[in-house]
Each structure stands twice: as structure tokens, then as C-alpha cells.
Amino acid sequence: MNIKLNGYRKKELAWLYLFVAPPVLGFLIFGLTPMLFSIFISFQKWDMISTPSWVGFENYIELFKDEKVFKSLFNTVYLMIGIPIGMALSLLLAILMNRSIKGISFLRTMYYLPVISPIIAVSLLWQWILNQDYGLLNHVLWNWFGIKGPNWLGDAAWVKPSLILIGLWGGLGGNMVLYLAGLQSVSSTYYEAAEIDGANGWQKFMRITLPLLSPIHFFVLVMGIIGAFQSFSQIYVLAVDGGPEYSGATIVYYIFQHAFKYFNMGFASAAAWLLGILIFIVTLIQFKFADRWVYQD
Amino acid sequence: MNKRLKWSSLVLLATTMLVTACSNGGSSNQAANNGNNIQSSKQTTQTVSDTVADKDPVTIEFMGHGNPNEKSIFEKLIASFEEKYPHVTVKYTSVPPGEYSQKLTTLISSGKAPDVFYVGGSEFYRFAEAGTVLNVQPYLDETDLFDPDNVWSQALDRYRYDGAKVGSGDLYGLPKDVGPWAFVYNKDLFDDKGITPPSAVAGEWTWDDLLDAAKQLTVDENGDGKPEQYGVAAYSLESAVWANGGNFIDYDTGQVLVNEQAFYDAMQFVADLTLVHGVSPNVEAEQSMNGYTRFLNGQLAMFAMGPWDQPAFWELPFNWDIAAWPASPTTGETATWLGSMGFAISNKSKHPQEAFDLAAFLSLDEYGQRQNYELGQAVPNLIDLSKGEFLASDKAPASRQVFLDIIEDYGRPDVPAFSKDTQWIDLFWQQASRVWNGEVSAQQFTAEIQPKMQELYDKFNK
């Protein structure tokens, strides 16, 4: 089939490709190529300085033999406890922020501030707050409640709760804004109808607000889980060398250590692909079950 | 249609998120790199005009890391090198220590290795094995800059490689420094209590003396169970193990030896300083305020230091001195580790002769070595300088001889120096907190961890 293009149409197409080119090329060069290369590397033994040698599936087999893989995966999944808590809290916050009281925009800004703060700076700040003897948190716990605070970042049992706490603080604002947008798009007609039928506040919340926000729940949940799988920066700062007994290391931290500390690039690539496949499967499952509980207009 | 869109967007989402997560480190490196290039191109245009006619101008790239002090010393040294070799321009880059290894490896793998760069123990091994670093033996044999008898062999031997193992064979690098890990004490605290301070002579002061002194020097003023002043902190496990006749590993056979009695007894001794005697801060106390800060605050009687700690310690309002590490009562011996950093030359350097000249100058030039020790960065690499003016210097510590004793007598290469992959020892340190906090005994712990360490060592080092 031969489509004849006149000059004007040709010119238009040329512009189209020109505009599309930067992101597409960017993705091809900096996204797809390294990704495909890492598949190739994951079947090799390579330390970046000597010639790579082909090892087949050995890297993948080794992965399943290393207890640190399971430990870091467990840590990663553990940190996801923070996701439902964060969702509940940010929804609560959004509802509180969704009314017209004085200084509301100031409050909204306050809650959003952690989201735009650099994560490294924030992590260093938390390191001070969580210090056992001199930290603000334990100081407050002792002076106000008479509770002797734990060694947040130094005790293997407390590292993960600390990380969850920091994650909550940092993530609330972002999710709050999403929920806020969701709340404001719920049509008031539903509430009016419910009121006529004699529904109380709680019923309105459970039967109208919550279900109509389900696309937001879904988005927050999917992004939260992916984000949790990838958490790295705060671990890097707060859990030195993976924290006591490797209790704070996440899977990405594990990959980072193998790639840029031990320079086992092949092994690290294999681990990265394991993570990629895991995220893919988990997200797939979420999408599969989404039909059952997410309302689409 | 809709379904396909959903699928492909899902794939895209998962994969791009993954890629972006791992790419953060790279971009910042690149930015730093660009900055350097701009800077260096300025430098070259400046110096091209005044080069000598008989030799073609040469630019040597040199990369290192370190604190601002070290950087300024090297800038001065490089200036005097360029004066001596007018046809050579040195492009010096100093990288934050945390990023150094990552950046260097990336440069090497992309074929842009600097001509001269710092190497540490396990890195050196990997580079020598991969043929990344130049064999400098032929250059050494010809140069007049270098008298091998006047350089600490303990430092030089670190940079030998015989085709299979580090420690013997031809030289593939030159020492930047030697770092004897010394035992330091707050003299005022000892004098106040009328306790005889630790001896500078190896073997005279034992673990029992240490414990005795530490008990008297641990003070809990308000009786809350948390002493304000501790006797000792960060007691070197290496020192304890070696003094006790134990070892982490036998590098000749590749056997991990942590499960031997000499080892776990020593480890238990270190743990008991905290657990039984309470004279050393426990893991929690150490986390809230580390030994270094406690020592600077005058709240710690005994600690450890390297020569590079001198500038900070010179500022202290109290008197301090170094001593021999306490000897094990079972053997009467003492030991500690001796660190070192070196200069290596890239095998791909286009100007190996000039690169070698620079490395040799930085490593061995008397003026540079003098600068280095006067600013409290290191013990000189040159033996006559060390035994002469370095020893005679009136700056603290008074017992400077201890540094030299460690180099000559009882210092040993730090544990990872001879292994190209350090996972086996990293695992040990990661898990050791279980002993430090009293969860398990040293004997139990070392028995459990030895097979895992052995497995890691065999897998990555053989």
C-alpha cells in the first residue's frame, strides 16, 4: 500500500518526530539500553574492570542461596506495614484539611513540607531525633510520659519501626494531597441524597466517601508498594552497613552493596531483575484484583 | 485495546521505576566529572605557554580523596612537582572518600582511568589481578628518586603482586602513607587518680593492668547507671586477637580461623569490658555518643588513634599520649593493625614515565613527607626522616616512638588488606553486635559464623 503524502503533511510529520524524539531517544539510550544490558550482565561474572565471563544461571541460583537476600526481602516487606497506616492517617488528615477553617492553606503547606524536603537531609535530622540518649523523641517520651524510649536505630528490633515512622512522616503530605483532590471531586449530590434518606455522618463516610475514593486508594497502594520495594536513601543514611544484624537493609540496598561496594555487577543485575519481576508480579496481582473493589466512573 | 494498554503501561511503570531507582548515584558523578573537566581545561591553557621547548607538554591526571588538609598539602606538592618537571601539568581531582571507589571503578571500566590514583588494600588486589595497574618495578630500578632501603618495607610490600597473591613479587604501586593504629590515653585523667599510665614499651602493660585502670577511671557521678566517664572505648578486636595468638584468617591456606580459642577468648575479653566490667560504653551508649566524641570531651580515659587524628587532638585542652597496646597475659605479646593507602598508575596511561615520576615524588619526596607529618597527616614513608626529625618533633604525642614500634615491630596489615573481596569479614562485623550486646558468647558466635565466613571467602577470593 502506498500512501502519498503532500508537502504539508510531510512537514507536519517531521515536526512530530522532532518533538517526540527527545523523550523517546532519552528512554532508548538511558532507559532501555542499560536495562537490556543488565539482562545480559546478569548471566555473567563481571567486576567492571576485568573481562566478563559467562556463568549462565549461576548468579540467579546464588541469589536463592544467600540468606541476606531473604533477610533484605523480609525487611522490605516489613516496611510495607507503613502503607495501610499511612493511608488511614493521610485520609484522616485530608478530611480534616478539607474544610474551610482559618489558616488552612498554611496547615496544608506544613503537612506537605516533608514531601519536598531532600530525603538525605531529612534522614540526618531523624538520626538526631532518634538518638537514644540525646534525641528529641526519647526526651519527650521520658519527660512527658515517663517512658524510657528504646534505642531506635541501634537495636535490631527497633530499626524497622523507626524506618516506618520516618516513612509515615515523609509520606503523609503527598498522599494527603491526593486524597484531598479525591474528596473535592466527590459530588455533593450523593451526600444530599443520603441525608434525605437519613444517613448519619459515619454511614456517609463508609458508604459514599470511602468507596468513591477507591481509585485513589488503589493508586496510593500501588505506588506505596513499589516505593517500599525501592526504598534506599533513608536506609543508606540511617542504617549504616545495613544496620545492626542487617536489620535495616532493603533489597535495593542489598543490590547497591553488591554493585558498588563489592562490584559484583552480574550478581547485582540478577538481584535487580529478581526485584523487577517481583514488583511486576505484585503490581499485576493488584491490577487483577482491582476490578473487585475499585469503582471507575 | 484497553487491556493491552493496561498491560504495556504496567510493564513500563514497573521497569522505569526500577531503572530510576538505581540511576541516582550515576548522575551526580557525571555532574562532578563535568565540573572537573571545565576546571582542568582552564589549567592546561594557562600552563601550555610556559613549557620547556625540548620536551612535549604532558598532562597527567591524578585522583585521590581525603579531607581539606590533605587536599591542600597535595596541591602544594603538585605545584612543586610541576616546578621540577616543567613539561608536566598535573590535573588533580579530590573526590569525597565515600564516593571514591565507586567513581574510580566506573572511570576504569569506561577506559577513562586517571594516570595516577589512590588504591587501598582489597582494591589494589582486584586491580592488580585485572591488570589495571602498571608494574612499576622497571621504572623503580632506573630512577634515582628512590632508595628502597630507606622506605618502610612494611608499607612497600603491600603493593607487591606476584601474579596470584599480594604481598610479594614486583611492585605495582607506591605507598602514600603508613597508618599505625595506636593506643591513646588522656594523661590528665590518669594523673588526677594517681594511676600509672600505660607503658610505651610493648609487653609491659597487660590486659589486667588495663582492666584495673579502666575500673578506676569509669565514673558514674549521678548514679544513674550510665557512667559519664568511661575507662576505655572502641578497644581494637584485631589487637586483642593477635596479641592473644589468634588470627582472623590464614591467608596462605585461606582458612578462616575465628573459631579458634585464642580468637574467641580475645573477643570475649573485649565484649566483657562492657558486659561484665562496665568500663567501656555498650553498643547503645556508643551509638548515642561515640568513643571519639567522648575522648575529645575528656570523658574517656583510653581510646585508639591513627596519625591522621593528630591535628584534632592537638587542639585538646588536656594532655594525652600514645602507648603500646596492652599485651595479652597468656602470651605476653601485643599487636595492632597497620593501615596503608597507595598510589597506583593506570596500565593504560599514555605517559607512564611522567605518571611514575609523580607517584614517586608524592610518595618519597622529602619535602612532601615533611609537610605531611608536620601537618599531622601521617608518619613519613622515609625511614631516616621518621627516625630523625619526626621522632625529635616536640609536638604531641610525646611517645612518638610507639608509632615507629608499630610499623617495625608489632603492627600487622589490617585484616582485609590481602583479600580482594571483603564480604567474609564484613559479615563478621555486621553480626558481631550479637556478642557486643551479650546475646551470645563469643565462642558460640564464632562457631556459628565461621562456616559462613569460610564459604564467602572461598566463593569470592579463590
Average pLDDT for all residues of chain B: 85
Terminal CA distance of chain A:
41 Å
Beta fraction of chain A: under 5%
Radius of gyration of chain B (Å): 25 Å
Condensed summary:
Chain A is an all-alpha fold and 297 residues long. Chain A has helices spanning 7-41, 58-65, 67-79, 82-97, 104-116, 119-129, 136-145, 159-184, 188-196, 201-212, 214-229, 233-238, 251-260, 265-293, and strands at residues 44-45, 53-54.
Secondary-structure map:
The complex is a heterodimer of chains A (297) and B (462).
Chain A: H1 7-41, E1 44-45, E2 53-54, H2 58-65, H3 67-79, H4 82-97, H5 104-116, H6 119-129, H7 136-145, H8 159-184, H9 188-196, H10 201-212, H11 214-229, H12 233-238, H13 251-260, H14 265-293
Antiparallel strand pairs in A: 1-2
Chain B: H1 2-48, E1 58-65, H2 68-84, E2 88-95, H3 97-109, E3 116-119, H4 121-130, H5 137-142, H6 153-156, E4 160-161, E5 170-171, E6 174-180, E7 182-186, H7 187-193, H8 207-217, E8 230-232, H9 237-243, E9 249-250, E10 255-256, H10 261-275, H11 283-288, H12 291-296, E11 300-305, H13 310-314, E12 320-323, E13 336-345, H14 352-364, H15 366-374, H16 383-392, H17 401-410, E14 411-413, H18 423-431, H19 433-436, H20 442-461
Parallel strand pairs in B: 1-2, 1-3, 8-11, 13-14
Antiparallel strand pairs in B: 3-13, 4-5, 6-13, 7-11, 7-12, 9-10
